[in-house]
Design brief:
alpha+beta, single chain, 10 helices, Metallo-beta-lactamase, Chain A, seven-stranded mixed β-sheet
């Protein structure tokens, strides 16, 4: 480089430096997450997982047929801790002729960290008024609370469907009156969420295994509640089974399916249904989705010695 070229370089640099953009270290942290939806296709059906948020659960106290020490160890191996930040998920199915939502989140019935499902539904490109049917896995607050927005129906054009056993149990005033004080909230949440639809003629129960729409079947999996239901979705030879609350803590219950959850109405029946679901999913290799698997809660199950390994869905851009 000649003297003239070196001189030109340094002059140009000296002129440019005062105008160079400077990093702003004082930029405020945003402290929000991206909209909680995840989309995939199942044959001709569009599946959209919707996050209602997360809630911290003291799983060491809630899980049974194990010990707090074993729970803590299993969590630690997965870089988790107790209380466990637990996802609450719903799933939107567009069949091409119907828009069907499975579970609605908690709204304001389960604390301030939940209640995001409707906003995430809107962020995903849909409106609550477009939902044709809502299928409920069971009537616990974190699955039915989103049916109402204040005193208004969140899904005013939808028919709500659930197993008759759950309706008879959770919507019974006699059962509410007889329930221990600490359990009355379960009944009150179900009644506040479902009764307005019942009154409006928009609740339609079913009993046991029932085809609800082309490609979508309800399958009884009683145990977590008296009418707990899983939903089987099939299109073009592809299959997705929506588990609801057959299981809650992946890092504990996949390796040890015999571990039970304190929220189960009948822990023995729930354990039987969970083991049956795990065996079938691993054997057949279809998609599964869980209400409390880490969002988006969709993946596959693979057997591993006496337990199972969860394989989350690989991210897709849908292009």
């Amino acid at each position: 480089m000649t003297f003239y070229q070196r001189l030109t370089f340094w002059v140009t640099l000296a002129v440019a430096l005062p105008f160079a953009p400077m990093a702003n270290a004082a930029a405020p942290q945003v402290k929000t997450q991206a909209p909680g939806y995840y989309r995939m296709f199942l044959g001709d059906f569009e599946i959209t997982a919707l996050s209602d948020g997360t809630v911290k659960l003291p799983v060491g106290k809630l899980l049974g047929n194990t010990t707090p020490e074993k729970v803590a160890s299993a969590l630690s191996q997965n870089f988790l801790q107790d209380p466990l930040e637990t996802s609450v998920n719903g799933f939107l199915i567009n069949t091409g002729t119907k828009l069907i939502l499975i579970d609605t989140g908690a709204a304001n019935l389960f604390g301030p960290t939940l209640g995001n499902l409707v906003n995430n539904l809107k962020a995903s490109g849909y409106q609550p008024e477009q939902v044709d049917e809502v299928y409920i896995t069971h009537m616990h607050a974190d699955h039915v609370g989103g049916l109402m927005s204040g005193d208004k129906l969140t899904f005013p054009n939808a028919i709500v469907r659930a197993d008759q056993h759950d309706a008879d149990y959770w919507l019974s005033q006699a059962n509410l009156d007889a329930a221990p004080k600490e359990n009355k909230g379960f009944f009150m949440g179900a009644m506040a969420s479902l009764n307005p639809y019942v009154k409006a003629g928009k609740f339609k129960s079913f009993l046991g295994d029932t085809e609800l729409a082309p490609g979508i079947k309800a399958t009884s999996s009683y145990g977590h509640t008296v009418g707990h239901t899983t939903y089987v979705v099939e299109s073009k030879g592809q299959k997705l089974v929506l588990w609801g609350d057959l299981m809650h803590v992946a890092s504990v219950q996949f390796p040890e399916p015999s571990v039970v959850m304190g929220f189960d109405t009948d822990v023995k029946a729930a354990a039987v249904e969970r083991k049956k679901a795990f065996v079938d999913a691993a054997k057949q290799g279809y998609w599964v989705a869980g209400a409390h698997l880490s969002f988006p809660g969709i993946g596959h199950l693979r057997s591993n010695n006496e337990g199972y390994v969860w394989i989350p869905a690989n991210y897709t851009s849908l292009k």
